[in-house]
Write a structure and sequence with these properties.
The chain is of the alpha/beta class. Helices cover 33% and strands 18% of the residues. The two termini are 29 Å apart. Bound molecules: ligand BJW and zinc ion (ZN).
Length: 268
């Protein structure tokens, strides 16, 4: 049977739920103006994210990879949470008052869920506003703009922009040991943080309702989370502009911008 698009039936399940997991991806921030990874907006210069979001790319050309992340940090700093982020945060507060639990598991590295007021948040892929030292592994929060003087006005996304070729000594450095730092995100081929995976696994096992919002469901291990919840008979609803490889596994599919569909689904 194809997934249902019956919002009234879904809202009844929302009202009856006691423990809700909301799994989000780049689509939840798209209406804030943050580009998604796949599709037309996913390119920076001539590169797809997959080509730059790896340790190999960083080792080969840390200046280029820092330009890419510097650009994305600066973009996010100019954006605001949209009605989808806000609906999720308000829903968490409302259910908390009723003694129920809402947990957001996000693949996003922007900080828009936090700024919207979401409290119970698991950030599977890290944060644009954290750094990790390549030398001593120190993890630090960093909202500096620019993150270092040499990156000021660099990182332009147009295909004909010139590489800044910043010497490694002038790239962002560790406060503790002066070593080179990298963006505090999880790159392709890297393991997710074990604590985050354990915490996410527990919520996914215990929840009685799951929403999967604005993700293409192609990047593992997050891509298997919602299908696993559906497989144990728990209702799962997908909110997306289009179908994904996981759509047929879910009971509900609400097609359209989640800034519209989520407030409909989660409002009192
Ligand atoms: C809207 C909307 C609107 C738009 N309203 N909707 C098993 C099988 C196959 C492969 C693997 C596997 N296990 C591991 C792998 C390899 C790899 C992987 O999954 N590759 C696939 C591409 C095949 N995974 C990993 O490497 C992971 N590590 C791991 O598993 O370690 C163990 C291991 C290692 C090696 C081998 C085997 C095991 C780590 C993955 C880390 C992902 N990191 C990134 C980059 C983070 C840093 C950065 O930001 O630069 O995370 S990749 C990128 O994709 C980013 C995202 O979080 C992630 C997911 O993307 P998302 O959020 O789904 O965005 P989009 O753009 O794809 O989709 C947007 C969606 O929104 C679309 O559907 C739109 O329609 C929709 N939309 N507007 C509603 N308004
Ligand atoms: Zn260090």
């Amino acid at each position: 049977m194809p997934p249902s698009a019956d919002m009234e039936t879904f809202r009844k399940l929302v009202n009856a739920a006691k423990h809700v997991v909301i799994l989000t991806g780049a689509g939840v921030s798209a209406e804030s103006g943050v580009p998604t990874f796949r599709g037309a907006g996913g390119y920076w210069r001539q590169f797809e994210a997959q080509q730059l979001a790896t340790l190999q790319a960083f080792r080969k050309n840390p200046s280029l990879v820092w330009e890419f992340y510097h650009y994305r940090r600066e973009v996010v700093l100019t954006k605001e949470p949209n009605p989808a982020h806000l609906a999720i945060a308000e829903f968490e507060k409302r259910l908390q008052h009723e003694g129920k639990k809402v947990v957001v598991i996000t693949q996003n590295v922007d900080d828009l869920h936090v700024r919207a007021g979401t409290e119970k948040l698991i950030r599977l892929h890290g944060s644009l506003f954290q750094t990790k030292c390549m030398n001593c592994s120190d993890i630090a929060v960093n909202f500096d703009s620019p993150i270092c003087p040499a990156l000021k006005d660099k990182g332009k996304p147009d295909t004909n922009a010139e590489d800044a070729r910043i010497p490694v000594e002038s790239l962002p450095r560790c406060q503790k040991c002066q070593g080179l730092v990298r963006p505090g995100v999880i790159w392709f081929g890297e393991n997710l943080n074990e604590g985050d995976l354990t915490a996410a696994g527990k919520e996914l096992e215990e929840c009685d309702l799951c929403l999967v919002v604005g993700t293409s469901s192609v990047v593992y291990p997050a891509a298997m989370f919602a299908p696993q919840v559906a497989a144990r008979g728990v209702p799962v609803a997908e909110f997306n502009l289009e179908s994904t490889p996981a759509t047929s596994r879910f009971g509900f599919h609400f097609e359209g911008p989640c800034g519209k569909t989520l407030p409909q689904a989660l409002s009192p």
